[in-house]
Amino acid sequence: MSHPRLSSQLLVLLALALSLLVPSAPASTIGIGPFATRTVQILFDGAGVPHVVASSTAGVYWGFGYSVGRARLLQMELLRRSVRGTLAEIYGEAFLEADVLARRDRVDPAELVKGPERAADRFRTALAAFTAGLNAAVAAVQARRLPPDPGFDTLGIAPSPFSETDVLDIFAGTMAARYNDFTQELDNLHLLNHLVRGLGARRASQAFEDVIFHHDPGVYTTLKGRSPLPVQLRHLPNFLPDAIPEGTLESPTLRSRKRNSLLKSIGIPEKSGSYAVALSMRPFGGKGSVLFGGPQMGYFKPSALFEIGLHCPEFDLVGTTPVGYFALLFGANRHLAFTATAGVANLVDLLALVPDPANPGLLLGDGLTLPLRQRTERFMVKGRPRPVERIIEETDLGPVIAAEGKVRYVKTRGWKGRVIDSYAAWFASNFAPTLTEWVGASDGMALSINWLGADRAGNIAYAYAGLGKSRKSFGDDRLPVRRPAHFPYPDVRLAGFNPPNGWFVNWNCPPVAGFRDGDLQTAWGADQRSAFLDDQLGRNRERLSPEFFRDLDRAIAGTDLRAWFFREELSRLIDPAALPVAAQQALVAMARWNGRRTDRNADGLLDDPGAGLFDRFWANLNTRLFGKVLGPFAWMVSSDPTWTQSSLLTRALRQTSSFDWLEGGSPTGVVTGVFLDTVQELASGGRALPAQPCPRMEFLPVNHVGAPTQTGPAAFTPFQNRGSDVQIISLTPEGIRVWGVLPPGNDACGPHAIDQLGAFQSFQFRERPLTLSQLARRVHRKAILQP
To answer: Rounded to 5, what percent of the chain is helix, strand, coil?
Structure first.
């Protein structure tokens, strides 16, 4: 089918055929011109956020692409290199492993070509226009009509044009091949093998079932009133742990974390979750609704997200999205507001296959024969005179990610072949006029995402958008298997509207009881952090309003979730009579602490000694209970102040676990002993508890060669467990108002690179104009461009 495109003959002139850049001026003195067919207006508010005004979809998305290129061109280049696997060319040997993983795990290039053919005209129009606008900015930088990011010179590279495939690959290589590509099955098998060797088969089975439990009925679910999904039958592993050779084995999970940590040093985000609340005011005597969201994609300078407004006769959109995406993931249109959190469903499996003895080029499973292919990848590495060659093995079902003994582990992804379909569905949801149509768009999603939405009439909706609801496993889904799972597409719809309590919350919890996370089930225990959000709303029913969410954001930022879930029960197990006076006083200090990690005087120390005491006590208790048995796998049950996955701790202390983690001791005796040792460790001889260091909130800058990893203006204490962007959206019959803060700023360079940092630190929000009438009062500068 044909669709509108910007003329390819004009690509050379796309930068600024007509550029009228109006200097900064008071917002009231710069007007918004009428929709024009031959020009695109880009209007900037006081925070430097661009709002594109055009007469057509093509014009709006041309302006979107141009705005991203103007503000984030180096970041776009690094994103492109991160998914292509060419970072070592500019950063050297340290990034070779990241490049190897990028090429091994890439989305099939053929899908990036064929996927758009199935998409709607509007998606293809936006893709073409966004790419053309981005290249207009590239041309303007090349011609010095726009200032280049100094990082290009530092790295010794120059801006170059992007193809439509490049733009799609940034989405596919991040949202699919990074944020939806996690598996812990081989780590779980290594754990089982470790336990068998240390404990014997029977006790190892008990310990394994405790750590990688099949289901915790106490886990919070977003659709609390919905009938649970049928519990899948359990299976024993159909090959034994002794298939793994002796010696040190590499953890795929820790290898991935190492890669992500390295990418973070140059500003490539990892997905660490997101929190969201959809609230209807109708059950509380009000009207309309509120949508609150905090996508947690790391803290970088520049931000992992980009804020934009898009305006044409057919639609208005405002919000944020990961840099390089042209679908808005978090924001509002004229009718409704939308946000999203990571779904963390079990979409990735490992197949344990063995070579055919008669033909090593074939891999065998249960009723399965796969050809094994090899390809040689060449990597340019800065500082090396010749390319480095690596052999990558792959099959029609996915890449080989590990080979141990005779076994090759093949990674299969449920979303394979449906990544661009998912992108098109997410894009289509931006324009939904009703929540019913918005939820309907989720049917096209294969990626694991939670969607939360609200409209002006007070309706709210939730949808688990992605595969896994009707998954059929052929083996224990916590471990590698010999036959791939089946993922129907499209899957059944799993959604809800207007719950009786008036709200939906999700902080990466399962959508409904019985929904499995398989190999990652440990994260879905009774201490799943969504319960904290639900509790905060329940305790504040009389205060629920848009203003309340500012306070909720502050509570989210500072609360030590370990203390919120566990402190009370742990304190009850400490016997004061067994403590000397100094330790009794320390116990009182820990009990009086308000549960938040703060540093009001900015001295780099936690304000309350009780916070530091609990932190050390928690670490020591977990080491005492799990360190000896789990050894290098203790990370599987470890929690930090921002993320809890330690429900085993409660079961161990309540003595409801299968394995005796107390080694015959009593809960009171063990916990009291660890607490006393902790106090003596921190304050021996009756000294007062010392204040402990407070973790910093650091917005890591793009790590140009020779540049420091952190600059003063982009850091403060304490660390705040918040979204990379935070939005509060009020929807009423009269209209929609959006407030947000995007730290440290919306640009990579210049005055708007860190101008939102102070507001973020002090929990201040700026209004984000959705309509042209709202925008008219906030325009500070204006550019008129002719594509």
So the answer is: 35, 20, 45
Amino acid at 237: P
In which residue are the tokens 């991160």 written? 82
SS3 call for 320: strand
Three-state SS annotation for 532-564: HHHHHHHHCHHHCCCCHHHHHHHHHHHECHHHH
Asked if residue 261 is part of any domain, the answer here is: no
Alpha helices in 573-714 (DSSP H): 581-592, 609-622, 628-630, 647-653, 667-682
Give the CB-side neighbour count of residue 77, counting CA atoms within 13 A: 25
User: Is this prediction's pTM over 0.85?
Assistant: yes
Alpha helices by DSSP H, listed for 85-200, are 88-91, 96-104, 109-114, 121-142, 150-155, 164-171, 185-199
Three-class DSSP category at 571: helix
CATH number of the domain at 678, please.
1.10.1400.10
CB 306 within 8 A of CB 753: no
The two tokens of residue 399 are 């890449």
Range of the domain at 577: 560-686
Number of domains in the chain: 1
Taking alpha carbons only, the member of 763, 724, 716, 720 closest to residue 746 is 724
**Phi, psi for residue 101 in degrees, rounded to 5:** -65, -35
Is residue 626 one of the residues assigned to a domain? yes
With respect to residue 373, please indicate whether it lies within any of the assigned structural domains: no
Identify whether the C-beta of residue 559 lies closer than 8 Å to the C-beta of residue 595.
yes
What pLDDT digit, counting tens, does each position of 620-663 carry? 999 999 999 999 999 999 999 999 999 999 999 999 999 999 99
Q: What burial class does residue 7 get, using C-beta atoms within 10 Å of its C-beta: 0-12 exposed, 13-18 middle, 19+ buried? A: exposed
Place of tokens 């850049």: 21
Q: What is the pLDDT of residues 502-561, one digit of tens each?
A: 999 999 999 999 999 999 999 999 999 999 999 999 999 999 999 999 999 999 999 999
Beta strands in 514-576 (DSSP E): none
Look at residue 670 and tell me if it is in a domain: yes
Dist. CA 357–CA 354, nearest whole Å: 9
Structural tokens at position 269: 């985000």
Residue 121 near residue 173 (C-beta atoms within 8 A):
no
